[in-house]
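Q: Fold this one first, please.
A: Sequence and structure below.
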Amino acid sequence: MKVNDYRKLYKPVYHMKPDMIELLQVPPLQFIVQEGRGRLNTLGRPAEDYWAVWKTVNQLKRMSKERNNYQFKLMPHEIVWHEKVSEEEWTFTEMMQVPDSIDFDMYDEANRAVEKRYRKQIMPKTKLIMIDQGFCIQKLHIGHYRESYKTVEELHKYAEDHGYKVSKDRREIYLNPPDCYPTPDRWETIVRLQVKAL
């Protein structure tokens, strides 16, 4: 059975070379998302992360393989950071991209399976939505997640110098999980900002 890897299909969206800023038009993509608000852990990620998105996508992956003979690889964890509520507290949207073949009926069934399996836990609500990020600038941040603000500042400076206005909150795409790469010098994060011409 062929395994479909959307990192390769959308290579400009999910792959970057270091030390450069790229401009790209991101196509509309489908995501499972959950909203969150809370403190950050020592990594700079949400401290209380029940990660209902990941559980739902795993159910969809199993269903797609068993019923449609279609197997896809899990995509990177993504967070859109919204408002800094306090020094260590943020509002954010966590998400993972899923294939267009996932429809609302499959999502509803997968969501019910997650709720049944984890009914004794407090699980965030998820949604299946299409997101059109549009025209963006991005740069690969290598290092600790808590230092990604430096890359954000670089992108804002680039936008200002090249006649663009940042129009949305920043998106961070975590390309490799820290539990597999214990030292921050190997953590890779695409930092992306939506922009429009002034």
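Q: Good. Now the second chain.
A: Here it is, same layout.
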Amino acid sequence: MTTTGRRALLTAGIAAAAATALPGCTAAEDPGPRKPSAAEVEAERMARAEAALRLRSVTASRSLLERYDAALAAHPALAPRLTPLRRSVAAHTKALGEGGTTVRPATAAPSPTATAPATATASAGASASARPAPSPAPVAADPRAALKELAAAERTTSDTHTAALVTAPPEYARLLASVAAAGAAHAYLLTEGARA
């Protein structure tokens, strides 16, 4: 085989290799964004559901915390009794919001239905921060009635957390169960525990 034949063979081999390697790199044959797999879509759905659950849980606990603040402002004499419970509710509120799920869209351009909850949550969050926070319910003038109102708010919040257990991921469900149990204990301490 002559040198020219070897060069021709080598050139043909390089050309063939380049022909098979380069089509994936050309812009003309770019397939566009990758369609997310079913597992990725499901993971995104679950992350959005968990984020919404965390938001509802934190909002319920924050509302209860505001009730404590209002009761303490209306009845400063109840501070020795309410301050430890309020501190506990503040810790629960913080714990329920920690470790929140960050939702990242799948690789493909999301469909309008997939972005609707995120857009709605984002716009709801933006509109909620734009308008003033609703003031907590008025506090009863009688301290005993104020304690009963707080106990009822504790029970309502505890029930909210208990109901959320059904859809919560396991670790967050354990936290919700603990917070719900503490809320039930607070309700007892605010009413029945005072009589003991």
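Q: Anything worth noting on the second one?
A: The first helix runs from residue 3 to 21.
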